[in-house]
Amino acid sequence: MKDLRRYLVLKYIQYLVLSSSNAISTFLGLLGSLYTIILLQSAKVSSKSTTVLISSLAKADILVSVSVVSEMAVRTFDVSTSSTAFPSALLQNLLTANAHISCLLLSCVAFEAYLITFFPTESRRLRTVKNARLTSRIIWILVTAECALFQADDLLKASSTSAPTRSPCVLLFHFSSTAAALLRSLTYFLGILLRTVNVYIYYKIFFSMSNR
Q1: Residue 29: what are its φ and ψ, rounded to 5°?
Q2: What is the DSSP letter of 167?
Q3: Where does the G-protein coupled receptors family 1 profile domain lie (predicted)?
Q4: Number of domains in the chain
Q5: What is the pTM assigned to this prediction?
Q6: Phi, psi (5° rounding) for residue 167?
């Protein structure tokens, strides 16, 4: 559990403290996720709701791995920029999806820590493996839908120049562009809210443990 706590601290710093990811934090995050996935396969680690959330958090870094490997392949084989416009947008959307999944899962872990600290008995029915798996699945589905919308918007933007002015593609482009812009604004404010809530939760937990 100490290793899992260190991993959570690393992920909190990476996604909820740092304003943007960098090469060092990304590399350490990938190493930590790989180690955590291996660690969770051990029979010594009991299957609890927290470990289910941490496992889903670690698996989210697969998206980062795909993006990093693909970018290295593009640079190695010197692929032209024009032919990689669509893949580049996809890889960027995968990184965005990873960040959003990680922030939501970290917030779920923080909320569970809050329930364990202040409502251990009352919240026992909520803190089940089944609910944790369901929560993780819902988060993945929602963020996958978000990623699909962003990718469709990028695709329509790339093809809008060659489309006729009154074609249905133009109407679809305006709709997807508006929806994507609204969703980006929503996720931006949601990210600020999650950071604030996480700070408040751990502030309460820290002073509660100090008083004890």
Answers
A1: -65, -40
A2: S
A3: 32-212
A4: 1
A5: 0.88
A6: -75, 155
